[in-house]
Design brief:
The chain folds into two domains: 147 residues, Ribonuclease III domain (Ribonuclease iii, N-terminal Endonuclease Domain, Chain A), CATH 1.10.1520.10; 67 residues, Double Stranded RNA Binding Domain (2-Layer Sandwich). The chain is 59% helix and 11% strand. The protein contains nine helices and three strands. The protein starts with a helix and ends in a 5-residue tail after the last helix.
Length: 225
C-alpha cells in the first residue's frame, strides 16, 4: 500500500480505505467489502470538482459546452487513461479466475478503481484533498479537451443531432454478447426512426453504445465531435 500511496501522491490516515478502493467485487464474498460504494461516491465527487473547476476557469464558455467538456473529462476513456498512467492494473485486487482473464486491464474496471480512489481520498482527507487529487490528474486532460475541441461524449452529441434533424431520440440495442462474465465483449447497434445508423463494440455496454453513436455521427456527416 505504501508503494501505491507514493504512486498516487497521497498518504492515507486510514489505509483500509485505500485497500477497499482497489478491491474488486470478484475478490470478496460481501459486495460491501469491494470498491463499489467508494466508486459511487467518487463519481459524484468527480462531477462536483470538475464542474467547479470549469465554472471558475472558463467564464466565457456557455453551460451547454461546459457540460460536454465535463462529460468528456470524466468518461470511461479519460479516467481509464489516467488509471493506466498510474498503473492501477498492477494493484487492483481481483479473484483468481478474474486475474487469469486479465480484467484489471479492462477500461471500465480501471475507471471504477480510479473513481473509488477519489471517493477514498474524499473520505480520508475531505473535499479539499479530493480537489487536489482530482485536478492533479485531470486538469491537463480538461485543458486538452478545451484546446482541441475534442468531445468524447458521442451519445450526447448524437442525441442533439437526432432531436434537431429527426425530432426523435436514438435507440441503442445490444445485439450480441461474447466472452465470460468478467471479460465480455458487447456489440451494439443504434437506430434512428427504426433505421440502423451505426454499430459498435466494447468491453462494456456503455463503450459499445459510444462506438455505435460515433459511427452514426460519421454516417450523418457530423464530424465536429
Amino acid at each position: 500500500m505504501k508503494e501505491l500511496e507514493e504512486l498516487i501522491g497521497y498518504t492515507f490516515k486510514n489505509p483500509s480505505l485505500l485497500r477497499k478502493a482497489i478491491t474488486h467485487k470478484s475478490y470478496v464474498k460481501n459486495k460491501n467489502d469491494s470498491n463499489e460504494r467508494l466508486e459511487f461516491l467518487g463519481d459524484a465527487v468527480l462531477e462536483l470538482v470538475v464542474t467547479e473547476y470549469l465554472i471558475n476557469r472558463y467564464k466565457n464558455i456557455d453551460e451547454g459546452k461546459l457540460s460536454k467538456i465535463r462529460a468528456a473529462s470524466v468518461n470511461t476513456k479519460a479516467l481509464s487513461v489516467v488509471a493506466k498512467k498510474l498503473k492501477l492494473y498492477e494493484y487492483i485486487i481481483v479473484g483468481k479466475s478474474e486475474q487469469k482473464e486479465g480484467i484489471m486491464y479492462n477500461e471500465s474496471i480501471l475507471e471504477d478503481a480510479f473513481e473509488a480512489l477519489v471517493g477514498a481520498v474524499y473520505l480520508d482527507g475531505k473535499l479539499e484533498q479530493a480537489k487536489i487529487f482530482v485536478l492533479n490528474y485531470l486538469s491537463d486532460i480538461i485543458e486538452e479537451i478545451v484546446k482541441t475541441g475534442m468531445i468524447f461524449d458521442y451519445k450526447t452529441h448524437l442525441q442533439e443531432i437526432t432531436q434537431k434533424s429527426f425530432a426523435c431520440l436514438p435507440e441503442y440495442r445490444i445485439i450480441k454478447e461474447e466472452g465470460v462474465e468478467h471479460n465480455k465483449i458487447f456489440y451494439c447497434e443504434v437506430f434512428i426512426n427504426s433505421k440502423s445508423y451505426g454499430k459498435g463494440m466494447g468491453k462494456s455496454k456503455k463503450e459499445a453504445e459510444k462506438e455505435a453513436a460515433k459511427a452514426a455521427i460519421k454516417k450523418l456527416g457530423e464530424n465536429n465531435v
